[in-house]
Amino acid sequence: MSRDHDDGSPALSGRAQALARARHAGTLVAEPLAGSLRDIEEADALREAAEAALDWRPVGHKIGATSRAIQTRLGAAGPFHSALFAERTFASGAQLDLPEGALGIECEIAVKIEETPARPPETLDQAARLVASVHPAIELVGVRMPDGLRPDVRACIADFGLSVTFVFGTDVDPAALPDLAALPVTATVNGQQRASGTGAEVLGHPLNAIIYLSQALAREGRQLQGGSWVTTGTCVGIVPVRPGDLVTGWFGPLGTLEARFR
């Protein structure tokens, strides 16, 4: 699901290898990325080279910066996307490591794609027809950058789109759910509510994230593949967590899921 954009330059290859080693080991790179990338295209090229250097199995896509609050925090004009990997995908109830640079968790609405679309969707109805199942999800986000999170979207994109770990809950038939934009979402840590929101935090409607992703992939000469995961973006912002914390995401009729961090 990722393309190899490594143009052979030692700088790109070296940074990609360093990012891949840091993500695999749960550590930080030596040199910061903030301010070092010319444009979004260079950031995407570095991200894709780093994803290829991981040699992990891609299973879908993470979409980031789908809420106005996160866009403001990252200095992003709109969403971005990165790969999800089988090696960092877990079912609800998993016990997970907190690597260096972990920022916290996001409660998200995730979907499984039914089949590869003939063309990118343009409307919510068209996007809905691509969805095989809907899932409550938790994503652990973080940085591999030694200077922490900076409002430089190019650095965030290159750093695997801030993706660390993806946790999914039980599948639900989308026909059995009310409007996803109105879906209530609550993040609880050790039994204490920390944040809440609705599906509308995600570009006004979570299915708008599917439209964005499909069209972004098409511009890159790719397609949204049937059977792939898509995480649509946080409904509750970023909630900090520490080792020993038990996190629960409540999604109303979509159900609940949990993860414990160590």
Automatic annotation (TrEMBL):
Highest taxon of source: Bacteria
Lyase: is it a keyword of this entry?
yes
Listed InterPro entries: Fumarylacetoacetase-like_C, Fumarylacetoacetase_C_sf, Hydratase-Decarb/MhpD_sf
Keywords (A to Z) from UniProt = Lyase
Record keywords: Lyase included?
yes
Q: Which Pfam families match?
A: FAA_hydrolase
Instruction: Report the PANTHER family cross-referenced here.
Output: 2-KETO-4-PENTENOATE HYDRATASE, ACID HYDRATASE
Q: What is this protein called?
A: Fumarylacetoacetase-like C-terminal domain-containing protein
| Organism of origin | Rhodovibrio sodomensis
